[in-house]
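Input/output pair, single chain:
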Amino acid sequence: MNVPVLVITIFFLLQTRNFLNTKEKMPTWDRWLIGTAIVLAGLFVLDKILDTNGAYQLKATWVCYVALALNIYIVNAGARRYPPARALLLALIPFLLVLAGTSFVRSFLEKSLYDPYKDVFENSIGFAYVWVFSLFGYAARQRKTYSKEHQARIDREEAERRERQVLEGLVQERTQELTQQKAEITRQKEELELALSELRATQDQLVQREKLASLGELTAGIAHEIQNPLNFVNNFSEVSVDLVTELLEERQRPPAERDADLEEELLSDLSQNLTKISHHGQRASGIVRNMLQHSRTSTGQREPTDLNALADEYLRLSYHGLRAKDKSFNANFRTELDADLPRVKVVAQDIGRVLLNLFNNAFYAVQQRQIAERQSDTLKGFAYQPTVVVTTIQTPVGVEIQVRDNGTGMSDEVQQKIFQPFFTTKPSGSGTGLGLSLSYEIITKGHGGTLLLDSKDGVGTTFTILLPAT
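Output:
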């Protein structure tokens, strides 16, 4: 037996176990490797015994070659998953081919081929030994490097696993926090919705209060306005009663003494009185009807409306309402109405509320300036004449209503906030701050128009309503 070949074969069988860690990863092949190494060792002992006796010479070297071929097969199977084993494979295959080929030639072609090229075959065998150990050293270094990289990869994966666990923990904690925050947000949302509902209910109450407040301001003006037609009705009724009495007395005379012309005159006067009574009664009825329209909620139904009549009526009602609260207040008011102004489809009670609000603000502004001027105790102050003017103009795109006064006016800061809900320049308890904001919504959203403001502090204010033609 070739002892160097035996030693190398057993050496590589055992090294293959270390390279591939067959004990854990390939237990079946591990048993084959150990068993083969034991068999080769036994053959070596048997070969020595037989050589000692001198009777036989056991050619066990070929068994080593078979064992190397088995080792190469196992390494090839393991190299699919273990790259360093490929270097070991490159070491064993050429070594086996050279040694097995040389043994074959020496055994069967010794004289014809081996002897002439003996030096070549011997040098090849020497080179095979150098090759196998050189590649084995390279494979060992590669294995060491691979092991370090593999361990580093395992460490990274372990670190990543720990990081994932930490991140998962953080995610769970964050999820719990978000769940709690969501629950808190839901609770706050419910509270806000409840508060919004209460706010809307309060706003509706304030809007109704604003309407009732304007209705209260109308009451005194209505009482004054309705008193005039009632006086006419009462006066003409009394006169008509006297005329009827006189007519009956004339009818009771003998036919020869009756004055037909007088009867005709009495009947004519009576007819005129009844016409006037009917006219002033309708006037009083119209005032009451407008008052009811102002107090009830708008239906949103637009109808052709005489804006001149509406502006004139609410101007007088606003003035007399303010006069009823302050007998010392006097102001000039007049109308500059376009006689050719067409009827415009609007919600009459809503536009009436807007006009009333603008008139009330105008009279309030001139009243405040009058008080301030008189407190100055100067001739110019007492010469101040409060004036409110309403103007209607037909334009190419619609109708324009202007309400201007020579009152206190507004600063730039006040003008920027004047249409905001609940903003008021009046003392606490004197206004809700909703009048102009509601007026703005009625004109812009309710009628598609525009409400403009032009004011100069200490000089006066002009509100302009622009309603589109319909």
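Residues 118-251 form the longest helix (134 residues). Residues 52-58 have pLDDT under 50 and may be disordered.
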